[in-house]
Amino acid sequence: QVRLVESGGGLVQAGGSLRLSCAASGRSFSNYAMGWFRQAPGKEREFVATIMWGSGYTNYADSVKGRFTISRANAENTVYLQMNSLKPEDTAVYYCAAKIDFFATYNYWGQGTQVTVSS
User: Fold this and answer.
1) DSSP secondary structure string, 24-83?
2) DSSP state of 89
3) In this predicted model, what pLDDT tens digit does every residue of 25-75 receive, in sequence order?
4) Cβ atoms < 10 Å from Cβ of 96
5) Which helix (H) or strand (E) covers residue 92, if one does?
6) Which of 47, 27, 28 minimizes the C-alpha distance to 37?
7) How many whole angstroms separate alpha carbon 36 and alpha carbon 71?
């Protein structure tokens, strides 16, 4: 049973930083793609960043390029999202997700962690 548990959300002022963590368990993730998504009130869930667990390949939404960094710690089975230069429009519930390979659909999701950026 795949389990994804996010942590690290909170309240921060604009311009500040937060680091989100996603602890993954339940199987080997060596071929998986891991992603971060977010959903703001009244809006659809949107893609933020992805990383291939094996190769380390990364991709970002244009809105976060240069500010957010996704990474993984293989020994800890944990994926991180370092968020710098936060803006009020980054306020959302952030979700960790996993899929079996690059071309698959994300089918494992965490419960989400709230990030609130005050102006």
Assistant:
1) EESS--TT-EEEEEEE-TTS--EEEEEEETTT--EEE-TTTTTTEEEEEEGGGTEEEEEE
2) G
3) 998 888 899 999 999 999 999 999 999 998 999 999 999 999 999 999 988
4) 28
5) strand 92-99
6) 47
7) 11
